[in-house]
Design a protein that fits this description.
This is Glycine cleavage system P protein. Keywords: Mitochondrion, Oxidoreductase, Pyridoxal phosphate, Transit peptide. It catalyses: N(6)-[(R)-lipoyl]-L-lysyl-[glycine-cleavage complex H protein] + glycine + H(+) = N(6)-[(R)-S(8)-aminomethyldihydrolipoyl]-L-lysyl-[glycine-cleavage complex H protein] + CO2. The protein folds into 4 domains: 60-85, no CATH class; 127-346 and 381-554, Type I PLP-dependent aspartate aminotransferase-like (Major domain) (Aspartate Aminotransferase, domain 2); 612-816, 3-Layer(aba) Sandwich (Aspartate Aminotransferase, domain 2); 837-999, Alpha-Beta Complex (Aspartate Aminotransferase, domain 1). Helix content is 39%, strand content 11%. The strands form 6 sheets. A 7-stranded mixed β-sheet has the order 2-8-7-6-5-3-4, with helices on both faces. The protein is globular. The protein starts with a helix and ends with a helix. It binds pyridoxal-5'-phosphate. Pyridoxal-5'-phosphate is lined by residues 382-383, 562-563, 622-624, 656, 658, 703, 707, 732, 734, 756, 771, 773. Pyridoxal-5'-phosphate (PLP) binds at residues 382-383, 562-563, 622-624, 656, 658, 703, 707, 732, 734, 756, 771, 773.
Amino acid sequence: MNKAATIRPLMALRIASSRLRQSAARSIAHSTLLTRRGLATAKSPINLIDSLDTFTDRHVGPDDNETGFMLSKLGFDSMESFLAATVPPQIRIADSMISNASIPALSETELHLRAKELGQKNAQFKSYIGMGYHNAVVPPVILRNVMENPAWYTPYTPYQPEIAQGRLESLVNFQTMIMSLTSMDIANASLLDEATAAAEAMVMAYVQSNQKKKTFFVDKAVLPQTISVLKTRAKGFGIQLVIGNAADVLKHDALRADLAGVLVQYPDVNGFVTDYSDFTKQVHDAGALVVVATDLLALTLLQPPGEWGADIVLGNSARFGVPAGYGGPHGAFFAVTEKLKRKMPGRLIGRSKDVTGNPAYRLALQTREQHIRREKATSNICTSQALLANMAAMYAVYHGPAGLERIAKKVHFLTQILKFSVERLGFRVVNASSYFDTLTIDVSKHCANAEVMHAAAALLGINLRRVDHNTVGVTLDESVGQADLLSLMRAFHIAASHPEPDFTGLPAPKEPAFPQQLVRESNFLQHSVFNKHHSETEMLRYIFHLASKDLGLVHAMIPLGSCTMKLNSTSSMIPLTWPEFGGIHPFAPTEQVEGYRHIIKELEDDLCKITGFHACSVQPNSGAAGEYAGLNVIRAYHDARGEGHRDVCLIPLSAHGTNPASAVMAGLKVVPVKTHADGNLDLEDLKAKAEKHKGNLAVFMITYPSTFGVFEDGVTDACKIIHDCGGQVYLDGANLNAQVGLTNPAVCGGDVCHLNLHKTFAIPHGGGGPGVGPICVAKHLAPFLPSHPLVKTGGSDAIEAVSAAPFGSASILLISWAYIKMLGGNGLSESTNVALLNANYMAHRLAGHYSLRFKNKNGRVAHELLIDLAEFDKAAGLKVTDFAKRLQDFGFHPPTCSWPISTCMLIEPTESETLEEIDRFCDAMIQIRKEAEDIITGKQPKDNNLLKNAPHPLSLMIASDKEWNRPYTREEAAYPMPWLREKKFWPTVSRIDDAYGDLNLICDCPSVEETASL
Ligand SMILES: Cc1ncc(COP(=O)(O)O)c(C=O)c1O
């Protein structure tokens, strides 16, 4: 067929579809708009041959008619004129920079085909590499109903406990599981990974010595990635890290005198299980802390460190049902003794009671958080690994203590069989005297070198640990069955040129293969919750029972300012749980992970295009970890130029608490910079401070648009001031959702920025994590990007690792990759435009009801808005919390409360919310404003009213008339808007008493006796 003949029908189709589109785009009244939402015609394709499953139309809530309507309400006749009034012209970039030409768009179907194609480029080897990572078996009931369930993965950190009791209970299960298995007094609700958990422990030991003792000793059989991360962290605090034989540490008097703590691994990287009880006593005699990195499954059989006196116990919980995922995300655990509990980093869930006296969970001891402590904080943990901790907890609930012990015994038994088998061939097992699941095997008897052994294993699709020239490592796990064991044995037989293996003649293991005195004698997980949900039906119901208590994006918008809670599309989540991506060990040889590497490279390239920077590292596991990594990169840059003395970090008072905390951790001195009453940075103050510290200025940290929700005109001037004084500019990219396609951190004047992929790039927040905080940097900083001890990453002059895994939480990078690829450049830009429009429309609707704290000279906000509630406190004693709790009665998650200003709410709708949802939220806010008015004018008493008594759970609704005792009806309390009749989300408890919970700190599940008395 000739070319013209094919083109003609295509053109006819295009013209027809363009006519269809024009007729659909006529102006429609507001009410009609709302009833038409959701119709396929509302978002027509450009022509009839284009894919219909275009992601932008699904991701961006408002359609063309709705954006047209919102623009007209704001007085603009086009999106461009609105943007011109919102974003300073001097920082705008050309449209072509982020367009479908620079980032082409794939349909949802095309994305899945592409992901499949790349997934198949990851070789499906069975890895026995160990080193802290295993092939976890995810129970299908947990995979489908927790990991793949948006009711579990879309909620935010449980800052609003009345609508988060489900995951709070599950996190308490996690804490209880850790306390019980480690035999420690208290555990937190997860940290980012084992290596950073060890770094937190090291700093705790240092702080515990009142920062007087500066030596931290690490046994050389600790995981190498942990040692690398410790080196990075030690630098910032001036801690002297000594790596050697734990047995020798106390022999050196000078070292002993300055010793803050010791870290040992139990079982260690080579598989040895060592009795550290005497050693612990000696370390304590030297006035230092004992920190133990350990393995939860091993602890079902081994004496727990708490029983031999450890002070801090930590590790990775991922072998409890979380896929390896090329390194994560995984929930690290962290447990301490009673005396250290108030210094413990990370989130802690505690039991308290609500105003009616019912037990209820909430975040405990929040004053430890960096939001409050800022530069006095010694940890910057904000987002951690809630979803993964919940998965691990559910795994323990499902298997129970007996099930866990059975799994551990099987793993240990198979490891013993393997040992007998390789010894029978003449190989030497280096740790024959003690092991749980790991053997270190000297293969020199039969192999010229270890490579021969690796090659034999590779023939059978097996990866072993590379130890040294003569030695390999093998770690078994729950996934290993008889066939796997035979295959593993066959690999050794091939290397030994020996005929086929079999089990005949192998001795049956009778005793544990570790010292008798280390056999666990104590019970664990006796609590009721770990002993009743073992059938799949019961487990399913427990998972859904908890999920029903939590408000997530599956219910309503979560307009948390600075958190960007947008659509986490199912299409971008689907590849995540494919085995092609889930089953990959982080230290698998590079040639086996071509698919992953390709995706990571594409993501890094796209992030560089979006930020305007030169290079990217995806290693940091959270925004705060990104800050820390970026600041270390800057320090290394100054150092390399002979300016290592530069250690002053300027930070505006409005900055997020993680900024000053990260700066201190990187060894910087924080100098605060003022902001003006209009929310803008005080450039005079910045200039004065930059000049005052000119000789020592290292960096200025700025969030843009600012945490006050405006694009400041002066950002480029601010960056110039810093550069003129020899400093670098760190741009906190938490608000990047306001920038993509319109401006970028490089154009604003930054040198480095972190991005919260769990905000702008649609990784779900998981109820408090996971997150990914990659850093993008200008060319001059690229050489310093973080390295990794086992896999080549980073630049030519790289800093040590900042995370345990080379590419951090690699598996969830797929989500952001898919998000960017499906939106393409045009969709990314459109998302930003609509995010700005939604926020401004919201500001417009709330105007006259609430005071908008900051706007630009054209009256515009950025992608979020700050409303000030101070007047209500003055008039009637109504606090931000009262408004927030009342919003729960309307079925909404409250916005960010009391940050960055204590009397304010920071509201961020994002582009994914439709006009209808935004209107619903504004209607709720306006109704609450009326209720507040009744309190101000005395129609309702100041101490007994709809706001002060909020939220109103169902249990209150069935109170007797006598108990009700309120000057308003039940209907006013529970159904203040008509749409609540159809769409009601019930908080499960009344307002929770925080102070009571902190004074009476209880952080584990009720015991069997307590459960019986409830
Ligand atoms: C402005 C800003 N910076 C940094 C962070 C820290 O990010 P993460 O919670 O991922 O550590 C946040 C988190 O809310 C933030 O809003």
